[in-house]
UniProtKB/TrEMBL annotation:
<keyword id="KW-1133">Transmembrane helix</keyword>
<feature type="transmembrane region" description="Helical">
    <location>
        <begin position="20"/>
        <end position="38"/>
    </location>
</feature>
<feature type="binding site">
    <location>
        <position position="259"/>
    </location>
    <ligand>
        <name>FAD</name>
    </ligand>
</feature>
<protein>
    <submittedName>
        <fullName>Glucose dehydrogenase [acceptor]</fullName>
    </submittedName>
</protein>
<feature type="binding site">
    <location>
        <position position="121"/>
    </location>
    <ligand>
        <name>FAD</name>
    </ligand>
</feature>
<dbReference type="InterPro" id="IPR012132">
    <property type="entry name" value="GMC_OxRdtase"/>
</dbReference>
<comment type="similarity">
    <text>Belongs to the GMC oxidoreductase family.</text>
</comment>
<dbReference type="GO" id="GO:0016614">
    <property type="term" value="F:oxidoreductase activity, acting on CH-OH group of donors"/>
</dbReference>
<keyword id="KW-0285">Flavoprotein</keyword>
<dbReference type="GO" id="GO:0050660">
    <property type="term" value="F:flavin adenine dinucleotide binding"/>
</dbReference>
<dbReference type="Pfam" id="PF05199">
    <property type="entry name" value="GMC_oxred_C"/>
</dbReference>
<dbReference type="InterPro" id="IPR036188">
    <property type="entry name" value="FAD/NAD-bd_sf"/>
</dbReference>
<dbReference type="Pfam" id="PF00732">
    <property type="entry name" value="GMC_oxred_N"/>
</dbReference>
<keyword id="KW-0274">FAD</keyword>
<dbReference type="InterPro" id="IPR000172">
    <property type="entry name" value="GMC_OxRdtase_N"/>
</dbReference>
<feature type="binding site">
    <location>
        <begin position="129"/>
        <end position="132"/>
    </location>
    <ligand>
        <name>FAD</name>
    </ligand>
</feature>
<dbReference type="InterPro" id="IPR007867">
    <property type="entry name" value="GMC_OxRtase_C"/>
</dbReference>
Amino acid sequence: MLFHISSKYFQISLWPRKSAYVFMLIAFILSGCAAQFVEYDFVIVGGGAAGSLLASRLSEVSEWSVLLIEAGGEENVLQDIPLFAAFSQLTSINWGYETEPSSTACLGLVGGQCKWPRGKVLGGSSVLNYMVSTRGNRKDYDGWEEEGCEGWGYDDVLPYFLRFEGMLIPRLAEDTVYHNASGQLAITYPPYRTEAARSFTEAAKELGFNKTDYNAGNQIGYSFHQCTMKDGLRFSGNRAFLKFARTRPNLHVLKKSLVTKILIDSNSRTASGVQYKLFNGLTLKAFARKEVILSAGAINSPQLLMLSGIGPREELQSLGINVLQDAKVGFNLQDHISFGTLYFTVNSSIGIRFDNVLENLFNAAEYLLSRTGPFAVAGGTEALVFQELNTSSSNSTDGVPDIEILFASSTLPSLKPVWDAWGGNSDIYAAYEPLAHKDSFMIFPMIMHPRSRGRVALRSADPTDKPLLYHNYLTDPYDADIIISGIHSSLQLVNTSAFQKYAAELYPVPLPPCEEYEFASDKYWNCSIRYTTFTFYHQCGTCKMGNDSDQDAVVDTHLKVRGINNLRVVDASIIPLIPSGHLTTPVYMIAEKAADLIKNRWSSSDKV
């Protein structure tokens, strides 16, 4: 019996009785897709960055059938306007996750909760992010291998970074050791730069930083962003990998369908498919002959594993979930965070302002006609410095950055919806509201290797309940020390002649909850970063990869869930240690390598 239709009230086979065909027809009409009535070789859960690439690669094998199930719908052209990145976080394509309140961070955000936007759309968070493409550092991946993840060292993963890259920057494309111009994922410099961003790179040079291609041999230095963009538009995983792949008859994409459980035989401990709920409420099942692959991300993948009986035994039992595999699912949560209110004013319009209606109309027309101008700036961020700190707090090795100093040519208060997308509360906004009518910019000093660890836990056994998210930001004092060092580095950049020709200065209004401390002292900064904590949405590590001796590992080095057959996880959740940079590009690499692992496994099996 291959297929089922089920609901709260009944469950029937689709083919023994004539009445079953009636239900099949109803399901087809309601869902608008016949895909759910077919058994597939592979069922992929999640159409984000990893799922998009993986579905494309597996469907290259014409003999294999692939079902990709996505909880959201299609992305649209408005979501692909680079400057509007934050606006999509206010729409239905965002899962709308919020962390639990804590005493250490996010204190100045609404409810004391950080917002964790995640993409609920084909392309996933690659439709929500700020499009910055960074791979991380060679020693990040060599560190994975040293920790027991054989086959994941830098020399092993570099070919996978190269395979999908479509480098459009001519000077970088010439470096064929580190770049590839023929891949599907377009990467380029945005077609517009503000004078403020140019001043930032001049300031970095003035302080002795070298210009670098941070995705090549040396990561330390300054650069304009390499972005996943093409012709002034966002280039998501959906556009890069699914657009063409969806023309293949062996790939079916099922949208607006929430997977609620992995189907696992308790005797053979083998995954055979998934149960999912359509947008109209109908619950169905899809079956996989070869594998079920979770690519639902660092929040949804561990949630789904736990709902299916794979996770911490005592916690699952307390929720009435039958435990199939006791595992550290949901632990090891890591993220990159920064200080969200490091604002500076200048005496000239060198950045991006939103309060000039006529100028904004001109910018909109320029973008519509030529796909350039401020609307082509990736979420308002333009350049960065990767810096290795020479402080007692730093523990990095040679050539590995402690912080990324990210430059934005506007400020969060300059446009209230952007502030709201971040989640800042109204009392703090009142202190910074005057910036909406001033020429200003901001800098994010982002820690690269935080020591604090959070976790994802189930709120209940109901798959529609959002999980409990414990960020645990800044629970280790090291993390705050590194961010404070990054603030000092940012101040040094602004004190250069490159910025002082515009009379750049730190916005002098103190953060209200931290007024008891001397303004701009380390105690003031330590207070401030705990109130206006800013996450870069790089959550990872919750289904940790490791070898058989690693008791914290959820998946092995082939990304197979330990103790369960025919079940893999392929997304940011498998990352053992967070790399030095933004995560979307490493996630593509993980999916690219996973595709080879899967092809090697089943191609050899099919020949037997």
